């Protein structure tokens, strides 16, 4: 049973199918809130939990090694963590303005579409589902698998095949939850957020106690820069920003947030300040109990820390970290498909992906599209290469979105903006992002070059999809198949929802 608002004939056909197969009323008989759309079910607490639960995932338990490796010293790595927090807060405030100025879901895609036009928006959509989202979900799920499996094999190395198998099981669970119910996914996120904050508290307290007792030898000469090379510093920021990644996910679900003009800025500010404070304290705790050499040798930093500082709870920490990774994975699968959903609604993706389940109100096709892509990259990828590979495109498009915000301010000064970020913050964030992206092309030309090349492959695809009416008749018939024979339990969402 489905209805399609794109044409009168398709609507009549859908209504005929509805009258035969189901007692549910047809589209014309449904009015107001009865029209099927993604519902506003996310309040302030779920919004804060959504951001914190997506940001605090595998990053804080994996990225410290990458930050230290590329920064070269304890003091500089802590400075990188603090600066990454400030930079992420600046970006989150910019996205708070964008989210309250343009009240459609879709995040980066919607803001690029509204400010810079359809081609940049489509390229962001293309990059997101070709490699950004699969790569992000892959390295989070790999961290989940590693923390589940490795405690059973200490002191030996865990078999990678088993780690990847457990990672696939974690991805499968998250996909099932997000296909089943928006409410269940939201409640799962809130629960896992409280669990992961408890894990951070367990790490911070022993570190602060040891530091108060004078255990500061690992901070002596903390700013030695003998091993620092400026070309690797952007990679240190990439690893730190990866750990903070997720502050923009609430903007993917704007249409599902209750009172977005109030709750989006408030949730973003509260969550990012909390995360920044905890991240710096967790890294201080790491360096209090571990030497830099020990941290660089560890593939599971939190487990090494627990064995050193929490002997009685050493077996609990890997479980908490694994649940933390699961929460980040759930947040990603909850938010990212909404970008694809909105892109399909705008005509930039096959229309089946603008469908939602008629009873569960979940964007089922968009969620299911991600699953095989994530599994494929999970099987073939390596975690630190994935971070560098995905970060170039992600941060380039974030910089474009905030640049578009500044251009839109200049062109449309009277456009309603319930929340307005200070101009200095927006300009600083945009300039720093472009600087980091440009320098990374020099630091890691292979991975960033591949990321750039894959993004540009979307240009011909854009003209094929958006301007398909110019294609030969036989090719147009192939594309028209996506409009027909849609699954029986899907219905096209209300395209007028703003």
UniProtKB/TrEMBL annotation:
The chain crosses the membrane at residues 42-62, 74-96, 130-149, 161-182, 194-215, 235-254, 266-289, 309-329, 362-380, 386-407, 419-442, 448-467. InterPro entries: AA/rel_permease1, AminoAcid_Transporter. Its main location: membrane. One of its GO terms (cellular component) is membrane. Residues 16-25 have a biased composition (Polar residues). It is a multi-pass membrane protein. It is found in: Membrane. Residues 1-31 are annotated as: Disordered. Keywords: Membrane, Transmembrane, Transmembrane helix. Pfam families: AA_permease_2. GO terms for molecular function: L-amino acid transmembrane transporter activity. This is Si:ch73-352p4.8. It comes from Lates calcarifer.
């Amino acid at each position: 049973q489905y209805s399609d608002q794109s044409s009168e004939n398709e609507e009549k056909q859908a209504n005929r199918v509805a009258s035969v197969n189901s007692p549910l009323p047809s589209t014309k008989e449904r009015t107001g809130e009865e029209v099927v759309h993604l519902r506003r079910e996310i309040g302030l607490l779920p919004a804060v939990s959504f951001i914190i639960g997506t940001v605090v995932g595998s990053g804080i338990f994996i990225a410290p090694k990458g930050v230290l490796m590329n920064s070269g010293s304890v003091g500089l790595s802590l400075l990188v963590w603090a600066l990454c927090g400030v930079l992420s807060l600046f970006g989150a405030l910019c996205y708070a303005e964008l989210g309250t100025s343009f009240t459609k879901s879709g995040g980066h895609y919607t803001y690029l579409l509204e400010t810079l036009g359809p081609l940049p928006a489509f390229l962001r959509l293309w990059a997101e589902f070709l490699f950004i989202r699969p790569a992000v979900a892959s390295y989070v799920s790999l961290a989940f698998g590693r923390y589940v499996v490795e405690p059973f094999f200490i002191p030996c190395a865990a078999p990678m095949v088993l780690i990847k198998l457990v990672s696939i099981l974690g991805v499968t669970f998250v996909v099932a939850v997000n296909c089943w119910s928006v409410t269940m996914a939201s409640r799962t996120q809130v629960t896992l957020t409280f669990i992961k904050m408890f894990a951070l508290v367990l790490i911070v307290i022993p570190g602060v106690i040891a530091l108060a007792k004078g255990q500061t030898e690992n901070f002596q000469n903390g700013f030695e820069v003998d091993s620092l090379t400026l070309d690797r510093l952007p990679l240190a920021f990439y690893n730190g920003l990866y750990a903070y990644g997720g502050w923009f996910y609430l903007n993917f679900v704007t249409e599902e947030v209750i009172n977005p003009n109030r709750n989006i800025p408030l949730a973003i500010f509260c969550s990012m300040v909390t995360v920044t404070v905890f991240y710096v304290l967790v890294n201080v705790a790491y360096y209090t109990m571990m030497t830099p050499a020990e941290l660089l040798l560890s593939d599971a930093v939190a487990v090494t820390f627990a064995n050193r500082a929490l002997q009685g709870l050493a077996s609990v920490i890997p479980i908490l970290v694994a649940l933390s990774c699961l929460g980040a994975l759930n947040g990603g699968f909850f938010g990212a498909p909404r970008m694809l959903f909105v892109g399909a609604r705008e005509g930039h993706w096959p229309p089946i992906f603008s469908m939602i389940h008629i009873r569960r109100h979940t964007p089922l096709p968009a969620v299911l599209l991600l699953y095989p892509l994530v599994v494929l990259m999970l099987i073939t990828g390596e975690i630190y290469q994935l971070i560098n590979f995905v970060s170039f495109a992600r941060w380039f498009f974030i910089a474009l979105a905030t640049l578009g915000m500044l251009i839109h301010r200049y062109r449309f000064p009277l456009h309603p903006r319930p929340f307005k970020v200070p101009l200095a913050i927006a300009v600083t964030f945009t300039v720093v992002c472009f600087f980091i992206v440009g320098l990374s092309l020099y630091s890691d030309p292979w991975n960033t070059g591949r990321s750039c090349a894959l993004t540009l492959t979307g240009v011909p695809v854009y003209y094929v999809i958006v301007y398909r009416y110019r294609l030969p008749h036989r090719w147009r018939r192939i594309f028209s198949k996506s409009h027909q024979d849609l699954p029986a339990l899907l219905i096209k969402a209300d395209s007028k929802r703003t």
